Amino acid sequence: MRSHSLSVALAALLVPGVASANVECDVEAAVQEWAAAWGARDAAPLSGPVAFELLVTDTGDAFRVELPRDGAGRAVPAGGDEPATRFKAERSVYCDLASGRMNILTTMGQAHASDPTPMEADIGVAWTRGGRVRSELMPAWFNFFATDTPDSVRFGFGHGREVHGGHAVPLYYGEGLRTAWYGLEPGMHVNRDAEDQANAFDSIFIVLDGPVHARFDGQQRMLEKGESVYVPAGMRHEFWVEQGRGEFIVVMSGEGA
Question: Where are the transmembrane segments (predicted)?
Answer without folding.
Answer: none
